[in-house]
Automatic annotation (TrEMBL):
This is cysteine-S-conjugate beta-lyase. Transmembrane segments: none annotated. It comes from Lacticaseibacillus paracasei (Lactobacillus paracasei). Residues 59-297 form the Aminotransferase class I/classII large domain. GO terms for molecular function: cysteine-S-conjugate beta-lyase activity; pyridoxal phosphate binding; transaminase activity. Belongs to the class-II pyridoxal-phosphate-dependent aminotransferase family. MalY/PatB cystathionine beta-lyase subfamily. Its cofactor is pyridoxal 5'-phosphate.
């Protein structure tokens, strides 16, 4: 019997996905419907994460925190070990979730009335980050070819050539299609952004959950030249079910882009992390490789 066979009552943790009131309001569903909309795990967190949070809870101090060096070291090691990505500590910025971060990025790198490009179908908050900030949403629909979504490169090039389009938010792997983009596809996307001077924002938070036999490539590996014209959005939230801790990070090698976003973080008062966030992230990134591999294999086999 696998640890993932145990039934787990998500309602006990106030999981939004399983809340009858939310399901009724959002989808008109009756109580006890089985929700399939929200991308979180219906498994308990990995035991080392539970232990780290419990140990932190035992310390009777939930006041303001700071970002210890161990955060940078752990993030750098995880990215190198799992993805072959060599990051530097200076490039990392902790934030309060990828969706809020997309809002700050839109605020920082576009003016009201300018445009942000996304692919459709899209995870709803991509459009919301644009529209909540009174920017124009420009969409480039993915094409369905042989039951697989692919980029429409001609359309992407046309839209990026528009002078009002300043930012492209890429979802890689893509939610909702599940596509893990190939290195060739990503190279073309990167080249187009460079050619049209469009800032690339690559949301790669689903990269940890990729089926065996499929290789995830970061856009930085597929198109190294885009690195200094881009922002990577990463977090342990999808792989380890930590969305409620409201913690994520961005990686920005270019000092100018990084400083601009830092100003926007200051404008939104992004300061110390949640008391439980750093212990949970460190436990996830140092003690849970085997748990993650087992979880993905279990989901694939189901
Ligand atoms: C592509 C994508 N980005 C971001 C998020 C949410 O990230 P966070 O919880 O860190 O705001 C999700 C959640 O499903 C997602 O699918």
């Amino acid at each position: 019997m696998s640890q993932f066979d145990t039934l787990f009552d998500r309602k006990a943790g106030n999981a939004r996905k399983w809340a009858d009131s939310v399901l009724a309001k959002k989808f008109g569903l009756t109580p006890n419907a089985i929700p399939m909309d929200l991308a979180d795990l219906d498994f308990p967190v990995a035991p080392p994460i539970h232990d780290a949070v419990m140990a932190r809870a035992a310390v009777s101090d939930y006041s303001y925190t700071y970002i210890p060096d161990a955060f940078n070291e752990t993030v750098i090691a995880w990215n190198a070990r799992r993805f072959g990505l060599e990051l530097e500590a200076d490039w990392l910025k902790l934030s309060y979730g990828t969706v809020p971060t997309l809002h700050y990025i839109v605020q920082a790198f576009t003016a009201v009335g300018e445009s942000v490009l996304i692919n459709t179908p899209a995870y709803d908050p991509f459009a919301e980050a644009v529209e909540h900030n009174q920017r124009q949403l420009i969409t480039s629909p993915l094409k369905l070819e042989n039951d697989r979504y692919v980029f429409d490169f001609e359309d992407l090039a046309d839209k990026m050539a528009r002078p009002d389009v300043k930012v492209f938010i890429l979802c890689s792997p893509q939610n909702p299609s599940g596509r893990v983009w190939t290195a060739e596809e990503l190279e073309q996307v990167g080249d187009l952004c460079l050619q049209h001077h469009v800032l690339l924002v690559s949301d790669e938070i689903h990269r940890d959950i990729v089926y065996p036999g499929v290789h995830f490539t970061s856009i930085w590996q597929a198109c190294p030249a885009i690195r200094d014209h881009s922002i990577l959005c990463l977090s342990p939230n999808k792989a380890f079910n930590l969305g409620g801790l409201k913690t994520s990070y961005v990686v920005i090698p270019d000092a100018g882009i990084r400083d601009r976003l830092a100003q926007q973080f200051a404008a939104n008062s992004i300061t110390s992390p949640n008391s439980f966030a750093i212990p949970a992230l460190i436990a996830a990134y140092t003690k849970c490789d085997a748990w993650l591999d087992e979880m993905v294999a279990y989901v694939v086999a189901a």
